[in-house]
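Hi there. Long-time user, first ticket. I'm pasting a complex I've been working with (about 566 residues overall). I'd like to know whether the download I got is complete or cut off, because the file seemed smaller than I expected. Thanks.
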Amino acid sequence: MIIESKIKEIRARSREQKSRGIKTALVPTMGSLHEGHASLIRAARKSAGFVIVSIFVNPTQFGQDEDFERYPRDFERDKAVCLDSGADAIFFPDVAEMYPDGPSVSIEVAGRMTEIMCGGRRPGHFRGVATIVGKLFIAVEPDIAVFGQKDAQQAAVIKKMTKCLGFPVEIIVSPIVRESDGLAMSSRNSYLSPAERASAPLIKQSLDRAAELFEKGERSPQHLKQAVANSLGGSPAIRTDYVELVDNASFEPVDGPLDRPACLAVAAYIGKTRLIDNILLGE
Amino acid sequence: MIIESKIKEIRARSREQKSRGIKTALVPTMGSLHEGHASLIRAARKSAGFVIVSIFVNPTQFGQDEDFERYPRDFERDKAVCLDSGADAIFFPDVAEMYPDGPSVSIEVAGRMTEIMCGGRRPGHFRGVATIVGKLFIAVEPDIAVFGQKDAQQAAVIKKMTKCLGFPVEIIVSPIVRESDGLAMSSRNSYLSPAERASAPLIKQSLDRAAELFEKGERSPQHLKQAVANSLGGSPAIRTDYVELVDNASFEPVDGPLDRPACLAVAAYIGKTRLIDNILLGE
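Hi, the file is complete. Here it is re-exported in full:
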């Protein structure tokens, strides 16, 4: 397993592959790798001859009162997941390498896509995401980059950033991986106490409740969102942050009757832990 | 002369050179090429085996009441200057090619560097500059990019953007080229009436006046700037927009006695035409 911490070195590795006609795929992560990340690495493995996993807990995408400091970090465990999943290299830079002059230069995706949902709840979050992903694209020069559908809004923002800045990178979005009880895999699940963990499957169940209504013909965004909120409201352990239904292409909220592929997304607090999840309707 | 209007095509040209071990230099311009641009192309020629001149009047760096519409455009003349100066290729995209989804994604350089001088007078200007230069770097993938010292603040912003985002591009800043009477060459000089043109050399003369004082030992930023303002005030045809003295490395205003290399910069209106100029002190 190749491990590089300097931009120059990882870029040289990527260019070496490119000069031999081999495609490079990047899987950007913040470490704390679980089966969801492993599935992204395997998806990258299918599409490219050389797979680089970046591990970097990006400070600019955390708000001041968020969990940057306590975000779980375990490089040796992450390395084992990378090996098992078929990665060729890990890019493991420190903050000074990625932000040599502090956070003064950023990539901004304007518009409703970054104002709604997590954009409204976490001001600056998607600026931090777009900035670090742009930097990683410049550092690694991948042909392909793989992101998870669990962070659906992030994937939409990154697709837009990639298109608008003209990065020659194909974006692959890989399906959500779930625990056996339906909970979407997330590094933040480790924050949950046993009692909180027991309540967590209700998030996916509430989305499934709306999906059932959709299957039966319900097309009202209001009714579909209300079904999720009502279902979540059934547990006193869960506090709903938002429920939103967006056009899956533009990531703009659907106002009228649902007539195109859409993403039904939810964010909810269980105790102090904020979890997100989503399902696709009409795909 | 190779002429490309599509990002894919110019990138393929650049990569073809790279695969043969030849360095590529980019000279970003808005066209209306004059002897100043020719000197940038010649500087690029000295440093690289393949020289690409981009010609693109970038809408996002113009304010609403500025001269985007009437900015001079003459592709055939520009092509002749490129040929004469030794360029190998011209990248001549349209607005839809560079902004496929409008101006919604931008690169922002925060801090005093973009707030003072032209940053304060032209809100959003440097966001537009940083964005288009970043897009051109992504499109052309140059090893070297050449900018003019005439736009000293722009050069500082681009250096910072390049360093912070980690573009593998060496930035060369090439000296100001002047008319025989000292006026810095600029595409906007063509806006001047004969009477206005006759007043224009006072801009450089006012900077020279301060340089004389500096040579004689004057180190007070206030006195040096006042000398420029007083000199410019001698002509009723000229309205000073700003006079600033900045650290030539950080591009932050010098407050105390001048003890390091600095850039003395001025912007002034002659009629409706806004011109900028600068000199280096203590280099």
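A couple of notes from our side: The interface with chain A takes residues 7, 11, 19, 98-101, 103-111, 130, 134-135, 138-139, 160-161, 163-168 of chain B (CB under 8 Å). The two ends of chain B are 38 Å apart (CA to CA).
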